[in-house]
Amino acid sequence: MKSSRLLLFFAVALLAGTAHAQNTVQLFGGYSYMLAPVHESETVQGACPVGTLPPCPLETFTLGGHPNLNGWDISGTFNPSKWLGATADFSRHDGSVQGSSVHMQTYLFGPQIRFPGPISPFAHVLFGVAHETVGANSILGFNAVSYDAFAAAVGAGIDIKVVRHLSLRAIQLDYLVTRFGSATQSDARASAGIVLHFWCRLQLIGIGLNIPRGFPCPRARRLLA
């Protein structure tokens, strides 16, 4: 038991870097806008001209554009130190192009740096996957298609403190890269909303840890019991 407490002591010391109170968890949620290029093509068997026997000529239908997609973005950031955090970001955007519905979902993870204060700028680099669905279009002769692809985002934003546990994310801008259909797409994403802050004070006492009540401290207290 003593050795396990020692290991926990060094792990907390390494991650926290200090025994002072810090924000440990940030939860963000809000509106999000995305400008996403969509390009789909489908080749089908065309009709045979009068007097011509099969095989008939092939016809290629193309659907494309840069639809305006609207949706939401949520994220959670764990800050083991004052400046550095680990972020999980999830978003969904919906819209249409040339009469076909478009749905884009992203699942991204990566490091984030921030500069704490009443006005707190931050920046992150995220990696993960994107899922895109383009609905069927009977006029253009398209069937519904879905893709999963690699995705990466580089972004930054600004949080403005409102009260102790609440901030306003005035803006978050992301340059998103996806790889649908073995091609590279460049997407722009803008988000805004609210940020909730949770923290606890870690106090090192001997080889043990005294963690007062508060989120996410109760779970930690049970682990140490």
Describe this structure in words.
By secondary structure, the protein is mainly beta. The protein has helices at 2-16, 217-224; strands at residues 22-35, 38-45, 58-65, 68-78, 84-97, 100-114, 119-134, 145-163, 166-178, 185-200, 203-205, 208-210. The strands form three sheets. The protein has an eight-stranded antiparallel barrel. Strands 2-3 form a two-stranded antiparallel ribbon. The chain has a two-stranded antiparallel sheet with strand order 11-12. The chain has two domains: 1-21 and 201-225, no CATH class; 24-43 and 58-200, Porin, CATH 2.40.160.20. 10% of the residues lie in helices and 62% in strands. It is built from two helices and twelve strands.
Give the % helix: 10-25%
**Span between termini:** 11 Å
Please provide the count of β strands.
Answer: 12
Outline, from the CA principal axes?
A: elongated
Beta-strand portion reads over 45%
How would you concisely characterize the structure shown here?
The chain is mainly beta. It is 10% helix and 62% strand.
